Amino acid sequence: TLEMPELYLVCVYVPNSQDGLRRLDYRMRWEDDFREYLAGLAARKGVVVCGDMNVAHNEIDIKNPDTNHRNAGFTDEERDKFSALLDSGFTDSWRFQHPDEVKYSWWSYRFHAREKNVGWRLDYFLVSDSLKDRITSTEIHSEILGSDHCPVELDLDL
What we know:
By secondary structure, the chain is an alpha+beta fold. It has one domain (2-156): Endonuclease/exonuclease/phosphatase (Deoxyribonuclease I, Chain A), CATH 3.60.10. Helix content is 28%, strand content 25%. The chain has five helices and nine strands; from the N terminus they run ββαβααβαβαββββ. The protein has helices at residues 24-42, 65-68, 76-87, 93-97, 113-116; strands at residues 2-3, 7-13, 46-52, 90-92, 106-107, 119-120, 123-128, 135-140, 152-156. A five-stranded mixed sheet has the order 1-2-3-7-4. Strands 5-6 form a two-stranded antiparallel ribbon. Strands 8-9 form a two-stranded antiparallel sheet. The longest helix has 19 residues, at 24-42. The two termini are 18 Å apart.
């Protein structure tokens, strides 16, 4: 977490629930603790959260929602915790600006998933609701290679 005069910037890697959902219980406890941590920061000033949230929040955020339901990253439990985070006073900056656009930030290295654009949107910039009207642009740079993830970008008018 970086404290700046205008806001807190929090970079995060949310734990993956793993194959067979063997870490789902841990993940659920972690999500509650993280939401509480962010609430403490947000009580003082605006917060920007960026990173791999390890969840495709809505069906639009994953290529094959039906076949991935109950897989790590697309369980009802994980999606509900992400909704609870948003409901606690945060905005998904990409979806705020692009409510209907299908774009992904992660692709498996297997089965030529990236070439076929069989992906998931797992990487986010969340902003405190108090900052959402200061979002000037958001981007998912799927054209940039070098990882199974691609960069995501947020521009704020501070």
